[in-house]
Amino acid sequence: MDFRNLNTLWASVLTETLVRLGLRVAVVCPGSRSAPLAIALAQQSGLEAIPALDERSAAFFALGLAKQTGRPVALVCTSGTAGANFYPAVIEARESRVPLLVLTADRPPELRDCNAGQTVDQQKLFGSFVNWYHEVATPTAEFSQLAYLRQTVIHAWERTQRPVAGVVHLNLPFRDPLAPVPQPAVLALRESLDEARFFANVGWDDGTPEPWRSPDWGRSLSSIPSRGIIIAGIAQFPNAAAARAHCRAIAQLSSCLGFPVLAEGLSPLRNYARLNPYLVSSYDTLLRDPDLATELAPEGVLRIGEMPTSKELRSWLERTQPQQWVVDGGDRNLDPLHLQTVHLRCAVQHLVQHLAASLPSPPAPPTDYLKRWLQAETDCWQQQRHTLRSLDSLIEAKTAWVLSQCLPPETPLIIANSTAVRYVEWFWEPGDRAIQPFCNRGANGIDGTLSTALGIAHGNQPSVLLTGDLALLHDTNGFLLRPRLRGHLTIVLINNRGGGIFENLPIAQFEPPFEEFFATPQPVEFAPLCATYGIAHELVHTWEQLAQALKVLPSEGIRVLELQCDRKLNARWLAQRTPR
């Protein structure tokens, strides 16, 4: 790593990561803005950097190298029209499935659209002809940003080859100084950044550059520590059979490795609890205890699917920085924390099948670390269950727990974003009802919540939607679909007359503008609103009333079960939660 200044550090992290992944040749066109990249590539051991004057010729030369070797070749140019000359070769690489990594230097954002020299719009310069495009952040010296750069480069390298070979374009803005002029503040970082640890597990010991083409899961997981955890992230399935198969595979993996399974509320695992004796669902509460969070810190994480909703879990992983393996069959980068991550591109069932011969059989006895997790889970739920049972007031956070206790088996449950999904994460108690959770977590928005729920309910068994008032109001036109619905949807409506999620954020302490611009109180009366659309409405006064209404669901139509709650009282109740 080159600590002479910010740009040399940034560029050296990029090139060192690429060489560890398997890059062997870079074709470099001249220019000032790309100087940090050219310097880093020219000085990088294990890499042949080839200068080329004409960008169009350079691009086809790189294309030929990639065709000949079957490996990605890096192609570098400065800002302005230079990158446009790569276009014909980029198109050819796309059509002939040749792996190329295009690195275009650029002016920083403040020098765009203001008549600065050699500056054009380089965003998505190659349109739909690339497998993936990303504009890299402008260089900074924070560890978190260097980790972001490392993981972004790892993902870019993979996307040059998967799911099919092709072009990846990274646009890299640089501020002055572009030459390696020393900056003392950056030089001072040398002592605090452990280079060996930073690049640990980047690349493969045997030099194989494409582990996802010929995956050797045993080799890639051989270094996973014994003090590890499995995180079962967000996973949604069209039927109970698929969900059960997913849960069985994770249970087998957990049993063989002796790892606790931290199961997200939107994972089916909490609804097939008997399959996995190592299940932990109270981690969000447990990790609020600083001492316990330190005691339970893992050395390795095997994550199945997307990152869970829990902010506490994310913050804990950021602090502890474990090595992470992400198991997912898609081609996305599923690491928003930019940990030292290896993506294993397969379904968990395939991973278990592949590892069957190498996993211990019979499983080793539970470790002290595993026992500590399971005891903490038992203690937490004993207290939490007692607290929730004794809570008579309509504190909205209890709603998810009540649903976990009384919904009919295999009920499709659609969960709105904002507070509803967090209540499921915090208070959905594990059981064996095979509930099928659904949520629009792709973009995490509240738009289309009702219409999505109606789509899931149509032609399906009776379904339930758990939602807040703003999410429902955002999509009341969905009620126009009522005459077309074949099936039934019960809407459990938490009406706290505003944006309850913001009551739990620091902005709630600032009034004004909190109440008007964040809580956004709304005066809608839902009974007459439902009557307008011909929707049944029931005002819920007690938890017993809600439970009775949910134990047997109607077979057709739409009904709303409304709980009128005080969001400020709920926020105070949540703030008093303790992990023990």
Give an account of the 3D structure:
- This protein has 580 residues and is an alpha/beta fold.
- It is 37% helix and 15% strand.
- It contains 22 helices and 18 strands.
- The chain has helices spanning 6-21, 35-43, 55-69, 87-96, 143-159, 184-187, 195-198, 217-221, 240-257, 283-286, 290-295, 311-320, 348-355, 368-389, 398-406, 419-427, 449-457, 469-473, 514-519, 526-533, 543-551, 567-575; strands at residues 25-28, 48-51, 73-77, 100-106, 132-135, 167-173, 228-232, 261-263, 279-280, 300-304, 323-327, 341-344, 412-415, 436-438, 463-468, 488-495, 536-540, 557-564.
- Strands 2-1-3-4-6-5 form a six-stranded parallel sheet, with helices on both faces. A six-stranded parallel sheet has the order 9-8-7-10-11-12. Strands 14-13-15-16-18-17 form a six-stranded parallel sheet, with helices on both faces.
- Residues 205-216 have low confidence and may be disordered.
Quick overview:
37% of the residues lie in helices and 15% in strands. The protein has 580 residues and is an alpha/beta fold.
**Overall helicity:** 25-40%
How many distinct helices?
22
Shape: globular
Low-confidence stretches: 205-216
Strand count: 18
Strand content of the residues, in percent? 15-25%
Radius of gyration: 27 Å
